[in-house]
């Protein structure tokens, strides 16, 4: 109840205003003012200007937000660094054409510079731009005397510009909110690099610079302009009916959002290339697997790393010396961005043909492109960085490659006859060699039958009939790495079997060995290989290889030195190591990992066994989701799947899955909600705790929430490190995730948005699933579940986590 009142109060503060004023006015004159709950609304009712407070904050700001969108979304803040401390603020327009925000003591806390415009008015446009213009002027009039678009906050709207006005020195750039409840500028800025061809860069206060690809696609148009008067980027949408925005968030990330009326939510546009790191001389192609590929004429610098899904080392040229005009070839790559511009030169007077000739004459030139539609020339020297492809739009890039690789060299043609003759000469020798190989293969096959040994190797077909596209190791190598599976190296035990620490090629690894008595078997083993080898995300544990030999089924993973999350949150001593900041970091990592599985991986994957013991922590306490033996692929056009074999862990399973065998991404959302409550409280959902009249942690959290006592759920080891508003928000999200009705549970995309946007109001959760009072005995519950399971012919298997 307490949270409901708080949210309602914030909404009232943000969206309440004098109806007669707001409906009639998009403009104020020097004789008018905006104060208290008054507001301006643009002529078409698209945007609104007024006073607001971020969620759970007492500070008050003057800002602009969407008028009709039900999710509060602030796009511009005037007094970012100087908030009002009470509701007495007044916005006034002076006769000198300047806007000023005053306190009740008439102190000015924000203002614009005076302008020379006569009869000034301040008008809020349907574009979201607040302008100072001459009274009676239209939107098509010359540039306003002042406009908010010249002083953006964290949001880029259609029609806005980023970049430098050379004549006035005005530099427009985005800075993120310092936190979801603090709109003051953060430590990053999104700017346009005016050196050479304009490019978007992320700059931080320590001087680091990161290239940011903002390029036109199916929905967005990004237009770079470079003239003697300006170096800018403008942004627009291809369809005026689309409501969109580009946000530079407090994590230093640039996100493109589109409003979806049907879902009533902002949906972020992301693809695989936002989640992986492709190194130099490689190109990223969204929605392909693998996402990173070497450019023609190059090969991976580290074949082993690439086979593990790590392409960050990039590629190198197969032939280091190019012929400098004596036969080198060019490969056209369409639909790309321009590579990083730091090692490029440009000449706007050259044609594309002249650009080609100049590149082939220069030994250092590795690629070239026209500046825009055949006009101008850009040439790159050395390695090519940050290259990606687009399904629609993009540029044509010509990449230089050695003729010997392309098969275009005249020298290669002259040697063709010699090659053919040589092949004929060795044909007889090859035939003899084949006979010898066949003989040796027969001998080896007989030996394998005697010893019962079956080995697989990279891209080799195993006895399972599956082609495994990851490194495999023989049993001798694995036993050596684990000191013959020594008990001193055992670090855990799960449903799959024991887990050992090992040293493989001077690298610490975790070795999962399938136990013969395991509730899991070959099906789960194959599932884990087939799924994990295709996944690449920083919050998913990385599969390094496998071993299938005789009766052994072994998986080799990267080693997580800090073990599993349950060892911390359910231990009062070790739990103290996880302060509030670190727990939020872990929650965010789990959120992003699960979001990737559900939405951004090449396959839609349902984990089905998300729990604290399956969250592993690396040396920096970064969380990684593990144990994909229960995971299943769900086709993109199916919202749910039925199964007759229910597997998982009691306390984490969604009711529709445990009782009816129906699972979907919302089943994982339920498990996530339980896990979130456990992280916040330090208690197990199904543990032996005194939850009063409630049977479990879910019911206990619900009762505290409805009584406005949710702060009592907090893990005592958090002490004073946990802000009450952030704890309340996390509990709210967790209770939304464990609602009984599947349709009411949010998607992981919505969860991510709710946790990262502290200023957005949250829905009120309904009563959760598995909420029982003490009057319903455990035995009655067990009998009821047995009845349901029997009626649906469902087998419930309890899987013990490591």
Walk me through the structure:
One of its GO terms (molecular function) is protein serine/threonine kinase activity. With about 800 residues, this protein is of the alpha+beta class. It has five domains: about 1-150, Bulb-type lectin domain (Agglutinin, subunit A, Orthogonal Prism); about 150-270, no CATH class; about 280-410, Hepatocyte Growth Factor, CATH 3.50.4.10; about 475-560, Phosphorylase Kinase, domain 1 (2-Layer Sandwich), CATH 3.30.200.20; about 565-800, Transferase(Phosphotransferase), domain 1. The protein contains 18 helices and 48 strands. Strand 36 (about 490-495) and strand 37 (about 500-505) form a beta hairpin. The model is unreliable at about 1-25, about 410-425, about 445-470, about 640-645 and about 770-800 (pLDDT under 50).
Task: Provide a quick synopsis of the model.
This protein is of the alpha+beta class. 25% of the residues lie in helices and 27% in strands. The two termini are 38 Å apart.
Using brief descriptors, characterize the structure shown.
25% helix; flat; Agglutinin, subunit A; 27% strand; Hepatocyte Growth Factor; disordered N terminus; 802 residues; 48 strands
Main pleated sheet? 5 strands, antiparallel
CATH architecture of the largest domain: Orthogonal Bundle
Give the tally of structural domains.
5
Strand order of the largest sheet: 30-35-32-33-31
Count every beta strand, where a strand is a DSSP E run of 2 or more residues: 48
Q: What's the CATH H-level superfamily name of the largest domain? A: Transferase(Phosphotransferase) domain 1
- Show unreliable segments: 1-24, 408-426, 443-468, 641-646, 771-802
- Give the strand content: 25-35%
Oligomer: single chain
CATH class call of the largest domain: Mainly Alpha
Count of alpha/pi helices = 18
Radius of gyration: 31 Å
Terminal-residue CA separation: 38 Å
The percent range for helix content is: 10-25%
Mean pLDDT: 77
Structural class: alpha+beta
């Amino acid at each position: 109840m307490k949270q409901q009142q708080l949210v309602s109060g914030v909404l009232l503060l943000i969206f309440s205003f004098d109806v007669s004023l707001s409906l009639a006015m998009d403009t104020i004159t020097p004789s008018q003012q905006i104060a208290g709950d008054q507001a301006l609304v643009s002529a078409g009712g698209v945007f609104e200007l007024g006073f607001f407070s971020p969620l759970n904050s007492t500070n008050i700001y003057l800002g602009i937000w969407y008028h009709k969108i039900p999710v509060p979304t602030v796009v511009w803040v005037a007094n970012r660094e100087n908030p009002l401390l009470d509701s007495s603020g007044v916005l006034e327009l002076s006769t000198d054409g300047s806007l000023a925000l005053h306190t009740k003591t008439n102190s000015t806390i924000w203002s614009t510079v005076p302008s020379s415009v006569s009869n000034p008015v301040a008008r809020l446009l349907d574009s979201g731009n607040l302008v100072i213009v001459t009274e009676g002027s239209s939107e098509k009039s010359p540039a306003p005397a002042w406009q908010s678009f010249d002083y953006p906050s964290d949001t880029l709207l259609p029609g806005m510009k980023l970049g430098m006005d050379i004549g006035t020195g005005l530099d427009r750039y985005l800075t993120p909110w310092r936190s979801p409840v603090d709109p003051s500028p953060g430590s990053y800025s999104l700017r346009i690099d005016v050196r050479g061809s304009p490019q978007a860069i992320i700059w931080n206060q320590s001087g680091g610079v990161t290239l940011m690809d903002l390029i036109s696609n199916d929905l967005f148009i990004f237009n770079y302009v470079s003239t003697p008067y300006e170096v800018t980027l403008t942004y627009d949408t291809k369809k005026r009916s689309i409501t969109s925005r580009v946000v530079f968030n407090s994590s230093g990330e640039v996100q493109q959002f589109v409003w979806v009326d049907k879902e009533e939510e902002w949906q972020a546009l992301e693809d695989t290339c936002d989640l992986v790191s492709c190194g130099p001389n490689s190109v990223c192609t969204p929605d392909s697997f693998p996402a990173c590929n070497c450019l023609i004429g190059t090969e991976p610098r580290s074949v082993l790393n690439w086979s593990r899904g790590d392409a960050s080392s990039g590629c190198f040229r197969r032939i280091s010396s190019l012929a400098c005009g004596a036969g080198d070839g060019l490969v056209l790559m369409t639909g790309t961005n321009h590579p990083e511009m730091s090692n490029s030169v440009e000449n706007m007077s050259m044609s594309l043909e002249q650009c080609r000739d100049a590149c082939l004459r220069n030994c250092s030139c590795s690629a070239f492109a026209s500046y825009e539609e055949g006009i101008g020339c850009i040439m790159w020297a050395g390695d090519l960085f940050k290259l990606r492809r687009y399904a629609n739009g993009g540029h044509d890039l010509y990449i230089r490659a050695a003729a010997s690789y392309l098969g275009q060299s005249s020298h290669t043609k002259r040697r063709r006859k010699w090659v053919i003759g040589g092949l004929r000469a060795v044909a007889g020798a090859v035939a003899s060699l084949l006979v010898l190989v066949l003989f040796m293969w027969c001998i080896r096959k007989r030996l394998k039958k005697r010893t019962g040994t079956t080995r697989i190797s990279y891209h080799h077909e195993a006895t399972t009939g599956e082609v495994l596209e990851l490194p495999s190791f023989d049993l001798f190598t694995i036993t050596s790495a684990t000191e013959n599976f020594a008990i001193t190296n055992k670090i855990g035990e799960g449903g799959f079997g024991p887990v050992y620490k090992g040293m493989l090629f001077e690298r610490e690894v975790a070795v999962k060995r399938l136990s013969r008595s395991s509730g899991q078997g070959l099906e789960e083993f194959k599932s884990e290989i087939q799924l994990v080898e295709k996944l690449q995300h920083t919050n998913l544990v990385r599969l390094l290889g496998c071993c299938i030999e005789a009766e052994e089924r072994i998986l080799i993973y990267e080693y997580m030195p800090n073990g599993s999350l349950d060892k911390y949150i359910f231990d009062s001593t070790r739990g103290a190591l996880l302060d509030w900041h670190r727990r939020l970091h872990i929650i965010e990592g789990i959120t992003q990992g699960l979001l990737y599985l559900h939405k951004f991986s090449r396959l839609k994957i349902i984990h089905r066994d998300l729990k604290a013991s399956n969250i592993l922590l690396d040396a920096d306490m970064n969380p990684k989701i593990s144990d994909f033996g229960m995971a299943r692929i769900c086709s993109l056009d199916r919202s749910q799947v039925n199964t007759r074999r229910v597997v998982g862990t009691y306390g984490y399973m969604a009711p529709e899955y445990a009782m009816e065998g129906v699972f979907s991404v919302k089943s994982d959302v339920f498990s996530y909600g339980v896990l979130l409550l456990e992280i916040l409280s330090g208690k197990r959902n199904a543990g032996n705790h005194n939850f009063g009249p409630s049977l479990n942690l879910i019911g206990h959290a619900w009762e505290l929430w409805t009584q406005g006592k949710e702060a009592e759920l907090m893990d005592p080891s958090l002490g004073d490190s946990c802000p009450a508003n952030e704890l309340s928000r996390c509990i709210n999200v967790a209770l939304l995730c464990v609602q009984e009705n599947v349709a009411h549970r949010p998607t992981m995309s919505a969860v991510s948005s709710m946790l990262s946007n502290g200023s957005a109001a949250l829905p009120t959760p309904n009563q959760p699933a598995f909420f029982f009072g003490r009057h319903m005995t455990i035995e009655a519950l067990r009998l009821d579940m047995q009845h349901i399971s029997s009626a649906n012919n469902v087998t419930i298997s309890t899987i013990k986590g490591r």
